[in-house]
Design brief:
The two termini are 20 Å apart. Helix content is 45%, strand content 19%. It has a single domain, classed as Divalent-metal-dependent TIM barrel enzymes (TIM Barrel, Alpha-Beta Barrel), CATH 3.20.20. It is globular, with a radius of gyration of 17 Å. The protein has 274 residues and is α/β, with parallel strands linked by helices. Helix 5 packs parallel to helix 7. An eight-stranded parallel beta sheet has the order 6-4-3-2-1-12-9-8.
Length: 274
Amino acid sequence: MKKLNFLTPGIPSSAKGYKEGLNIIKNTGLDGLEVEFVHGVKMNDETQKFVKDFSTENNLTLTCHAPFYINLNSQEPEKIDASVERIIETANVGKNIGAYSITFHAAFYMKQNPEDVYKTVYKSMEKICSHLEKENNNIWIRPETTGKGTQWGTFEEITELSKNFKNVLPCIDFSHIHARYNGKYNTYDEFSKIFEYMGNQLGQNIFENFHAHLAGIEYGAKGEKQHLIFEESDMNYKDLLKVFKKYDVKGALVCESPNIEVDTKLLKDYYLSL
């Protein structure tokens, strides 16, 4: 990646379908979108071709979000197998449309020891990466930092996992981290600690191949409740973008605010003003 790209989370709210949505992104001066497979990996061949061709012709960046029905620590083996398959399906469509990266919420603790959950998630990542390597699919695989204490996926856990696989790096959701720790990680110095930690553990590679999420967020004692637009939240996006600038981050920043293209443009405009 040559720069930091600002992506919408799915099709802009004012659009109907990918054709209209991608044109809005192009005309608004944004950099691409994250294709969201919320309830299943569903995109027909014709749409895949259009999305790939349009994005290539207009130099737009694509990422994909796997379905929410994933738990690599399920107590039912068949559900783990189905979760692995959903991630692989997302990666395959991602490759077909020329996506840079895919992300997913990996697992729940299920009241188990975090170290044991890590080992279980690790086994599934071995299966996923081995399968994709056989298919010559080199897309980035990104477990996402999660917003609730019941979910596996602190930035330390995902960073540790990433150290063991060639095509795995974190998707850092800064809003989730802020919510998970009940309002912490919301200052320039606190954001810098996250970047410093990842740099020490993963090297410069992480900053040259970044994938992150950001939005306003409502949270409580148990963590994330819902995404908000920035003006209705306490999310300190300005200081965070200053840290992005400091580390010369390149990759994809997906703005998951409910007003989609409005806050995505807000982020990009502020970043370019720094």
